[in-house]
Amino acid sequence: MLKPILSSQQKEQIQLWLDKCQRFVLCAHVSPDGDAVGSTLGMAGWLRALGKEASIILPTQMPDFLQWIPGVSDIIIYEHNAEKAKQLIEDAEVIACLDFNDLSRLEEMGEVLSNAKADFWMVDHHLNPKDFCKVTVSFPEMSSTSELVFRLISEMGGYPFITFEMAEAIYCGMCTDTGGFTYNSTNPEIYYIIAQLLEKGIDKDKIYRSVYNNYSPNRIRLMGYVMYEKLQVIENFNACIFTITRAEQRRFRFMKGDAEGLVNIPLTIKGTRLSISLREDTDKDRILVSLRSVDDFPCNKMAEEFFNGGGHLNASGGKLYCTMEEAIETAKRAIFHYEKLLVAKK
Questions:
Q1: Fewer CB under 10 Å: which end of the chain, C or N?
Q2: Residue 138 CA: distances (Å) to CA of 7, 128, 234
């Protein structure tokens, strides 16, 4: 059995929406990852099974390696179809905010949502949720928002409505947000949920291959180039930094998602506790920062203090508005600042 995540008041309000409302819009953050896509598809499937209109709107396109998930083709991408998205948001009675806890995470689309007349409903696992929703289901200790969606559906009596396609999406979200269940996944209840999803007929090994063994030759060449030519190993600090410029992205015919997972590779170096990726954004004049760590090193605190970001203990992100050279210096300052934690004996 799973621990309840909803208070009696939250269950009452959600049931009221299900009884009285017909038009739901589900949103997730910019640069949607597997958890953003999986959680929205899972919840939309449940709402549709209850006879609701459930539209998914994402601010930007998801990576190519997630295009296999059933239902992805029906997702509305705001940057490609803003007028349709705005109309759906205006007409919505309930807007579900999944895998983000601050409208700023949607950038331009967040401004549109801020003027919506609908009730807001948050389901998320990031720290420090903003207070803008009528119902906020926030559990930072959970592995993923997809896990929360499964728990919420089950707690509302919806497990029988979970289809094979919904189960695939939810499992994909849980898998990608834990690096294939290699971090943030020690809660035994996670594996009970996996067993429940397997009961729906999913092939977890096939899902893993579809996510992690589904890259282009250019992505593999980019990975080799970055690890050989660009990786800086700060040995005395158990940390690594690498960079990817716009020119290098053009050279390797970069596609959205090609940098996914690269930041995890330096953590396979013996003793390494922190990996930092600095990548020039192809759309805006900024440096995108990804941080990964092991054990109890607080990526989220470093991201907040040095990189205008935040996230989870072992997986966080941010952004810098400067040159790549300045970004490298900022990353080194962050590493030196956290020297005691990085060299601590474990």
A1: N
A2: 12, 9, 36
